[in-house]
Amino acid sequence: MTITAVCRYWRDICVSTPVLWSHLIDDDTLQLQRLVLMRHPYMPLTISLNCDVSRNIRMLSDPLDLRCNVLGWVSCMHHVITQIERYPLSGAHLEKLTLTGNPTCPEHHEFRTPRPVEGMTLFRNDTPHLRSVSIVDLSWVPTNHFSTITQLLISRCPWHNPVATIVNLLRNTPQLVDLVLSGMHPRLPAEASIREGTEKARLHSLRRLALRNVGPRVIAPLLSELDMASQCVIVMSDFGEFHSIPFRDLRRDISHGLPECLSGFALMQPTIMHLRLFEPASIADRDQPNFTLSIAAVNEHAGVLLRDKHVLPTGLVYEFPTTVFQLSRLQDLCCLDTRNFSTADPWPSRMWSSILPELTATKNLTVFESSLPHITQSLNYIDWAAPLCPHLARITVLLPHKAVRIDEVMLELVSLRERMHFPHVTIGYLPEYTGMRPSQSEQDCHFDSVEYLHLDKVRPVVPPWPDHSRLPDMPPAYWPPFEQWSSNMVPDTRVIRTTRFDRFGRAIDDDSLRGWGSIGPGTRA
């Protein structure tokens, strides 16, 4: 409007450029905008409505047939949407619909007794061109048959029975390709179960299902009610239950929600996993250290991503992650443990003693050199009669920062080979490594092949999923880039290395004990 008031010439240019008026958002521009719409009656419009019913009607009251392609309705409460019949607005041309409630409403924060969810059918169910629907913070439910949509986003809706409500919506979306559920949690401790014999929601066109910050009590029953295509990929990320809770509580919550409910689903049976355990530098209590946990796990049709979750190991809880994931199909495991525990501490070795017997299909194992003593010690807790990692072909040892003696690393590997029988070894020097970088060792003869490599970064997780290149891009928050994120999983180990002292009590920097190396990568067979 400001530009049109400069002069008549500028006003004529603006009026003759219909794209400048394609967004109907404010009734202050109605007079001039109607002039443009009279000249260009078939121009597709983006219309924004709010909770002011009179304002909405005033903005839409026009004899022209508005061709609304995109409709966004904020603060769309139930008492507002029930008056939609008063609006001269058709859904005949609608392609994208976004309905946003009011997150400050008490219904989003108060637990109430169960009651039927209020519903409303929009546009008399006549939306033949609708392709995308977003439902955010709504306390009521659209009862439309969205039979033409290919994308559906449901986020933070305070429904008392979210699983049943979502399944009822999905039963009328046969062409759905992308489904995103975010921030959905049951409002009551126990949701009413779906009636037995009820037909599952058939989603044979579904290719991507994103579950972000969705509680296990929603995920498990929801997946059991969906009949999905075999090409569908499920990505689960950022569980709220994992944040800032004691490890014993974490295990209890996981055991209740994940293994029992989800162990039969593909997403909990990874073939590739990156596991990072990082101890914050500010923690000095070795008796009860907390650490940051991150996991990237994928298989042919699923992926799980947990990032920077603070947990606290207590008691004799060593079984993680075997209490969370089924590791029998795992082929590649990269376990990056930078917590500088001594071999006298039982936690790392007991953790490895729970992991190694489960790796019956694993071919490649990648660890930091600091994990080797704990893996060796873990063999004392494992039954020697059982075969251990029978398909293991290669162990890759990463040297992140602290200078170490390569001969000592190779001796640890020789000791491990007596039990695990892996033929190949890779020594990987990461960019921050400060010691000498030899390309051979006296212990190389104990293996079929040993390679010494300079690595720019840790090998990322490359999901073996079907080709989705023709599908529209999804926001990284909903569809996380596993390859990009996992390549940066190595924490800054410089702040957590162990400090040593001389006989006078002075701290010794490990870097001062080793020289800088410049030997290039080599391979010895």
- Hey, roughly how much beta strand do the residues contain? 15-25%
**Helix share bin:** 10-25%
Spatial shape: elongated
Quote the average pLDDT.
Answer: 77
Contiguous runs where pLDDT drops below 50 for at least 5 residues:
107-115, 240-260, 281-286, 493-525
With helices defined by DSSP (H or I, 4 residues minimum), what is the helix count? 12
Largest sheet: 19 strands, mixed
Helix and strand content put the structural class at: alpha/beta
User: What is the terminal-to-terminal distance?
Assistant: 76 Å
| Rg, nearest Å | 29 Å
Give the beta-strand count: 25
Protein architecture, described:
By secondary structure, the protein is α/β, with parallel strands linked by helices. The chain has a domain at 269-299 and 309-525. It contains 12 helices and 25 strands. The protein has helices spanning 8-15, 30-39, 53-60, 78-81, 162-170, 216-224, 247-257, 259-262, 346-355, 372-378, 406-420, 482-486, and strands at residues 23-24, 45-49, 68-73, 96-100, 119-120, 132-136, 141-142, 151-155, 178-182, 201-203, 208-212, 226-228, 233-237, 245-246, 272-278, 291-299, 302-312, 332-337, 364-368, 394-399, 424-429, 449-454, 500-501, 507-508, 522-524. It has a 19-stranded mixed beta sheet that branches. A two-stranded parallel sheet has the order 5-7. Helix 11 (406-420) links the parallel strand 20 and strand 21. Helix 5 (162-170) packs parallel to helix 6 (216-224), helix 9 (346-355) packs across helix 10 and helix 10 (372-378) packs parallel to helix 11 (406-420). The radius of gyration is 29 Å and the shape is elongated. The chain starts with 7 loop residues before the first helix and ends with a strand.
